[in-house]
Design a protein that fits this description.
This protein has helices at residues 3-20, 26-37, 44-61, 71-78. The protein has 85 residues and is mostly helical. It has 2 domains: 3-37; 44-82, no CATH class.
Length: 85
């Protein structure tokens, strides 16, 4: 399974949950659960830092972007300057 297929399955599940009316508090609850269980979460600003870094690496290589494939590196970029969750 690739990330695109997985994201579509997740979106379908979210839509099912929303249609059933049982997900009113889900976004906040899911976020709290993730933060409680994991040391480092990438928030929107962190994603922006990853995006900017990938674009800069791509420019240097003559491409639109150079994906960061190592999770540790991705987290380091996301949490630069003490930012992030």
């Amino acid at each position: 399974m690739d990330t695109m297929t997985e994201s579509h399955l997740v979106a379908e599940k979210v839509l099912e949950d929303l249609a059933g009316g049982g997900a009113r508090d889900a976004p906040a609850a899911v976020f709290r659960d993730v933060v409680d269980k994991h040391e480092r979460v990438v928030d929107w600003e962190g994603w922006g830092r990853i995006d900017a870094e990938e674009r800069a690496r791509g420019e240097w290589a003559g491409k639109p972007r150079e994906k960061i494939t190592d999770v540790r590196t991705m987290l380091e970029v996301a949490h630069r300057d003490g930012q992030g969750v």
